[in-house]
Amino acid sequence: MGPRAAAYDSFLLVSFGGPERAEDVLPFLERVTAGRGIPPARVRAVAEHYYQAGGASPVNARCRELLAAVGPQLADLGLSPYWGNRNWHPLLEDTVAAMRDRGMARAVAFVTSAYGGYSSCRQYLDDIAAARAKVGKGAPEISKLRLYFNHPGWVQAWSSSVSEAVAKGRQLTDRQVEVFFSAHSVPEALARTSPYVEQVTDAARLAAIGAGVEQWRLVWQSRSGNPASPWLGPDICDAITASEAGCAVVVPIGFVCENMEIVHDLDVEAAQAAAATSMPFVRAAAVSGHPAFVRMVADLVRERLSPRVSPAALGSLGPWPDQCPEEHCPAPVHRAS
């Protein structure tokens, strides 16, 4: 039975998760980094980023807001809403167990990641499978909704955010405003095995067109791996430092929700890079609360529920298929087992 033929009874929001109090920061980071060989000193250094921001990531709050915003449309579609995270409470396996206990049989899953890639897509599919296996008999079937990097709702939300940020930037300088679209860097070797770069680039291009922005750059942020291996660049801080523009407008197009990669890596480190050259800095808002994005979530569900609803997509890449190709976005070697 294909994904469009199934009768669904529930909606599952799946996200990365984040701590909501200071005492949970280190346990959260230890869970995130388990098995990756990251030195404890590095984990403690990252923990300081959370403490400096009050000891919490904003991502869980944004997920609650998104679920509340899309809730009425889910109710109209006859779906019960649930939410589970990869790395912090509510944990995905606990949510799947609760769904089983409440008699849920089939769910559509919306992941807070728009792009293909191991961490942004394939790992979520693995997480869902692992949660179902842990719950065991009676676990609901869970079908992940397609990637939405070029969905009109995604593009419209980002175009709106970019327009607002550029307008603020132009109030701060009479010189050129340079727009930097930023996404999480990954190793170049991993990028070659996925559509990640192509999709992020297309999303940035479409958002720039929608905002009427002709001059823009794609940059990368939040590198966390072995400095000896090549990662996607240029780094956002390096790009800002080298810029001769009158104002830097940074657009976190690689992310759905506000999170620590935005709060620290952009609002602190990238802003400091701009300040070091006396350049005004404006950061565009993430889009998880934008009305166009909320409508998109419901539209993706409607696509899955009815074969009469055609998949919507802008640009030349077309809509991503309902089911990700088995060979796409393989795990890196150190996580393949």
**SSE series:** EHHHEHEHEHEHHEHEHHEH
**Overall mean pLDDT score?**
94
The tally of strands reads: 8
Helicity, as a percent range: 40-55%
How are the strands ordered across the major sheet?
A: 2-1-3-4
Task: State the helix count.
Answer: 12
Reported CATH architecture of the largest domain: 3-Layer(aba) Sandwich
Categorize the overall geometry. Answer: globular
Major pleated sheet: 4 strands, parallel
- Strand-residue fraction? 5-15%
In angstroms, what is the radius of gyration?
Answer: 20 Å
Q: Terminal Cα separation, in Å?
A: 29 Å
* CATH topology-level fold name of the largest domain: Rossmann fold
Number of domains: 2
The CATH class of the largest domain, by name, is: Alpha Beta
Low-confidence stretches: none
